[in-house]
Amino acid sequence: MDDNVLIEIKNLHKKFSSVIAVNGINLTIKKSEALGLVGESGSGKSTLARLILKLIEPDGGEIFYPAIQNIRRDCQIVFQDLQTSLNPRMQVGEAIVEPLLVHKLLPRTKFAARVKELLEMVKLPATYARRFPHELSGGERQRVGIARALASEPRFLVLDEPVSALDVAIQVDVLTLLKGLKNRLNLTYLLIAHDLVVVSFMCDRIAVMQAGKIVEIGESRQILTMPQAEYTQKLLQATLQF
Q: 5-193 maps to which CATH number?
């Protein structure tokens, strides 16, 4: 296997009742790349991400992690809706500390310093550690979600529609932050989205999903300027019209 491969997916299948969510996916995610996964709702994007993170098991096929030792620690996710994924009764600092406790990464005496470091990493004041989720804006909650995902020092992040619930100006700020963190921490991203323009800004390559299958994959510039699949062309037209 290529030394540059972080995750390799071979002939992956997943079915829910009569719905085929993932249908024979073959995909390679390279070390330090940002791979975009684009498609309409119901195309299978989030199911594929959950399979990669081992949150669910496939019905067939295999996923290989040649450069990952501990999937739970090294692979993390940033969710779309931080309003529901953050515990409303838990202060921001407590939420960020959770992965440190689960993976036993630091002694408790160093938790406060690590929380401060992570908050500063996502451009939030250290004082936000004492706030509750309802006291934050949508953009601030998303930054907390990013800090929490980074707490375990992962190598791979799934970004599941990370800016779709935010205002356009805030989207740009969060995407710029994520791009900077990728370079600073040498991260690998799988960015799930429906907006090809957003994905092209963030990603080196783009995979287009339709009805559980990858119908096109290529360099971002090629997908954006010369899409080959009819479905990709329709997605691009819809994005530009919007």
A: 3.40.50.300
